[in-house]
C-alpha cells in the first residue's frame, strides 16, 4: 500500500528530500542531477565518459550506480547513428569493451596453451 520514504530536514527552511531524490545526486560532482545531466560529464569526450563511468562503477547502459549493464532493466539501444549496441548514448564512440584488457587476456590464454616444440635427435 505505502512505500517507505525516508526524509531529512535541511538546516535552512524545512526542505524535505525523499531518499529517492537524495540518491539522484551526481556521482561525479555531487550536485543535484543525475550523471547523464552533469555538465562536467557531458563536456568530456566519449572515451573519458566511459572511463568516468567505469571509475564510478556506473551501468554502461543507463549510467545508474545501482547495477551493471548485464543486469540493467533498460533494454533500449544507443541509437546514435543507428547504433544498436546496448550502451548509453553519451558513451557512443568509446570502446564498448576495453580492448587493451581483452587483448591481454586473449594473449595470455594463447601463451598458456602454447607448447614448445622439441626436436629429438
UniProtKB/TrEMBL annotation:
<protein>
    <submittedName>
        <fullName>Uncharacterized protein</fullName>
    </submittedName>
</protein>
Amino acid at each position: 500500500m505505502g512505500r517507505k520514504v525516508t526524509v531529512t530536514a535541511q538546516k535552512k527552511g524545512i526542505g524535505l528530500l525523499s531518499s529517492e531524490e537524495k540518491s539522484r545526486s551526481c556521482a561525479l560532482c555531487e550536485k543535484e542531477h543525475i550523471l547523464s545531466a552533469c555538465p562536467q560529464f557531458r563536456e568530456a569526450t566519449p572515451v573519458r565518459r566511459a572511463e568516468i563511468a567505469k571509475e564510478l562503477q556506473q551501468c554502461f547502459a543507463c549510467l545508474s550506480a545501482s547495477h551493471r549493464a548485464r543486469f540493467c532493466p533498460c533494454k533500449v539501444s544507443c541509437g546514435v547513428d543507428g547504433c544498436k549496441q546496448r550502451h548509453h548514448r553519451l558513451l557512443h564512440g568509446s570502446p564498448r569493451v576495453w580492448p587493451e584488457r581483452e587483448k591481454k587476456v586473449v594473449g595470455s590464454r594463447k601463451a598458456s596453451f602454447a607448447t614448445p616444440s622439441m626436436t629429438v635427435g
